[in-house]
Amino acid sequence: MPKTFSEHERLAIRNQLKKEGKICLGLYGMKKTTVDELVRRVHIPKGTFYLFYDSKELLFFDILMDLHDSFQQTLLSQIQQAKGPLQAQEVTDFIYSLYKAIDATFLPSFIASGDLELLMRKLPPEIVSAHAQKDDFSVEQLLNLLYIPATKESVEVSSAALRAIFTSLLHKQEIGEAVFDKALYLMINGIVLQLF
């Protein structure tokens, strides 16, 4: 019979799994991180892991969503706290700083290694679909905060354009590392100007 955990214990174990999972992603990547390694680091039996996650992929997706949500919330908060109507330059600056913060995480190497693609293939389709809808909703919130009329198509296209710019983080060398930051800023500014 599985052990019963208090709500506090459940939260502590889940947070510890995420913390150690994030470390493992940075050190080993998804393919080389095993459930055995995760439970060893968290000091729980293997069966306990499966009380929290059906697979390591669902844990890693949860870690990615925490990072994703944190960055999105930061951007939306910055825009909400801005004084008066924002100009395209300010929005560009906010989004650019967000991309630079993302670039400083494990995420670009996670994507470049092929782990993100593998993760998305292993996830249930309904989870992948829900994530895309969540991205679109966040872009819709952004457009509303900027008082930009949002149609279903404009939200989907804007969301896709921002994801496309994100993927450019994986191609710094091909783009040219010496000019990459300026090119990134220019691409973001182009999308923001189109939004305005």
Could you characterize the architecture of this molecule?
- It is built from twelve helices and no strands.
- The protein is mainly alpha-helical and 196 residues long.
- Helix 1 packs across helix 5 (56-81).
- The protein starts with 6 loop residues before the first helix and ends with a helix.
Computed over alpha carbons, the radius of gyration is 19 Å
Low-confidence stretches: none
Biggest sheet overview: none
Task: Name the helix and strand elements from N-terminus to C-terminus, one letter apiece.
Answer: HHHHHHHHHHHH
Number of helices: 12
Q: Report the mean per-residue pLDDT as an integer.
A: 85
Short description:
The chain is mostly helical and 196 residues long.
Strand-helix topology:
Elements: H1 7-27, H2 29-32, H3 35-42, H4 46-52, H5 56-81, H6 88-103, H7 107-112, H8 115-122, H9 125-145, H10 152-167, H11 172-175, H12 180-195
Helix pairs in contact: 1-3, 1-5, 5-6, 5-9, 6-12, 9-10, 10-12
Provide tags for this entry.
single chain; 196 residues; mainly alpha; 0% strand; globular
